[in-house]
Amino acid sequence: MQIRCWTGEVVEYPAESLVGADLSDKNLHRADFSSADLSNSNFSRADLRNAEFPAAKLDGARFIEARGMNAYFAGASCQNAVFERAMMSYANFEDVDLTGADFSGSVVDGVNFIRANLSGARMGWSSYEDPKLEGAVFDKTTTWPEGFNPVIHGAVLRPEDA
Amino acid sequence: MAQRFTGKERDAETGLDYFGARYMSAAQGRFTSPDAPFADQHTIDPQSWNLYAYVRNNPLKNTDPNGRDCFQGVVSCANYVLGGVGAVTNAFSSGIINLPNRLADGLVAPFNGGQRVFGDLVPDAFTATNTDQRQGMEAANAVMLVSPLVELGAARAVSATAATLSKSAPAVAEASSLTAAEIQAGLKNAPLKTGQEAISAPAVNRYMDKIRGGQTAPPIKVDGNVIVDGNHRYAAGVLTGKPPATTPGTASPSQVRNARPFGQMKVDPKDWGNH
Questions:
Q1: pLDDT tens readout for residues B118-158
Q2: A66 HSE (CA, 13 A, CB side)
Q3: Domain boundaries defined on chain B
Q4: Which of B198, B229, B270 lies at the smallest CB-CB distance from A6?
């Protein structure tokens, strides 16, 4: 199948579905994955700058050491997705379900987590200047960088955990 | 060759008038090649959008001494230059251009995060009283603000005045590296829009180095006035006064939804590794 990019490029992938797809190390700059089912796919070390995943299904997907600056995930489902050591500066995770996601060692400068569900997520970012967390929900199992107070940035502890 | 109404020499074989930067066909009232993009185009003056037009289709009022810049009458031109000189004078009187200190520093020392606009801290000696003077001041201020070398002293003040006189006033940046704040300030009036959240300052500097080295950036993709692809290249082009060519593209729904003036985009001081 073909993956269209807003640059005009087309990336060929030798399968009829992207579920569980191995897209590691691919150049997917400005790729369009709108509403696609990408469950358990592998984007490790891929170039995902400005890639678009609105309303996509990315549960269990791996983005280890991916470069996802300005990537757009608004409305996607990323349960248990792994963003370890990924460069995600200025990405947009607005209204994204990040339950159980792992951001250990990632760079999230300027990232938009507004209204995201961060329950059980591991937010051990290595760099996090000006994260936007207004209305994001977390629970008592969500972990944060040492000394980071999510409430100051507008995140809300799930009422049943308060 | 013989001099004609425009004061320019006409080639006997082609019948074209030589304006330095371009040839003009008096028979058609048009230049034979386009003006440099963004060199002398202004959003408030639709006549300036036609890159082939001679003196914005008003030869009785306007002049074009070099094929690049349209002057709207002698008074307008004089006011424009006066504004530019006034801006430089203000910069000196307010201490922003402080030759001994800046030369001693030897390096760019951004002040107030590079966001300061000339004339903010102390009352200015010169105040623009009409549109042409204001545009002249803005052009000179833009050059002085964006170019780190300007802060080193009088050499750049002279350069800014020269740029004002030419009325093309590209945001010249010849230092080895601009800070994120300086890039942000230099892009303030960039005419295109973007749906992108941020660009990386080191990446912009690398593209600027390539342009200074004589390389031509690949065209950027635009949809109307929204950049589809090529934000770093566009930034480098604006800052060096050599914006890249454009080709048509299709903006994504999120780009259209988030489109805003290019100058409002965040400039990240960190290196993203783009080349």
A1: 222 333 455 566 666 665 555 554 454 444 334 433 333 44
A2: 32
A3: 1-55, 73-166, 180-268
A4: B229
Residues in chain A closer than 8 A to B250 (CB atoms)? 6
Low-confidence ranges of chain B (pLDDT < 50): 1, 91-124, 141-142, 144-173
Question: Structure tokens of B233?
Answer: 């290249």
The pTM for the full model equals 0.64
At the second CATH level, the architecture of A1-162 is 3 Solenoid (2.160)
A52 CB near a chain B CB, below 8 Å? Answer: yes
pLDDT of B46 reads 60
What does the alpha-carbon distance between residue A87 and residue B78 come to, in Å, rounded to a whole number?
52
Q: At what angle do helices B154-166 and B131-146 cross, to 10 degrees?
A: 140
Sequence ranges of the domains in chain A: 1-162
Measured in residues, chain A has a length of: 162
Q: What are phi and psi of B159, to 5 degrees?
A: -60, -40
Q: Which of B53, B63, B80, B59 is closest to B167 using CA atoms?
A: B80
